[in-house]
Specification:
Length: 168
């Protein structure tokens, strides 16, 4: 149960789903050419499958971030509160957050993404945390490219790796 609660179970399930579908010869080749479109299609399917566990966790996080953004006295205190929230999340939950904030935009707005960028939510992650499966590097990089560099804070190494992978 703890593995499921920490996000690693869902992250691995999502990575496996992408890998299986990506390897399937029946997939339309034009979808494979647009890695981000491929991600969005797979994310929507995943989100629908795990609707009751996955979705509400991230809705709750979004509401807390909105509250912080609305009621913090200044940017510094907002960042401090957001850091306390982020400290409660595992690296796997942060990776899932990166997918979710981008993936739900078909149904919502870009507000979630903007809050994650504003409060530098991924600044303590490594590229390997997102791309632990070498077969999914291009797809994960296409997701990370959608974020402004501010989402990664002062993590120059992560920003450089995203830039390097996107140019290959």
């Amino acid at each position: 149960m703890w593995e499921y609660a920490s996000g690693s179970y869902l992250k691995n399930k999502f990575h496996n789903q992408i890998q299986e579908a990506y390897s399937d010869d029946l997939i339309n080749k034009s979808i494979l050419e647009d890695k981000f479109l491929y991600f969005k299609n797979e994310f929507n399917e995943f989100n629908n499958t795990y609707d009751t566990t996955f979705k509400y966790f991230f809705i709750n996080l979004y509401q807390i971030l909105k509250y912080i953004d609305t009621y913090a006295e200044n940017k510094e205190s907002g960042k401090e509160y957001a850091n306390m929230l982020r400290a409660q999340l595992t690296k796997n939950e942060l990776v899932l957050l990166a997918y979710n904030a981008i993936g739900v935009q078909n149904f919502t707005t870009k507000n979630y993404q903007k809050l994650v960028e504003k409060y530098e939510f991924f600044e303590h992650l490594r590229y390997e945390d997102f791309c632990d499966n070498p077969n999914l590097i291009a797809i994960n990089t296409s997701v990370l490219q959608k974020y402004q560099a501010s989402a990664f804070g002062s993590n120059v190494k992560l920003i450089e790796e995203i830039t390097k992978q996107s140019s290959e």
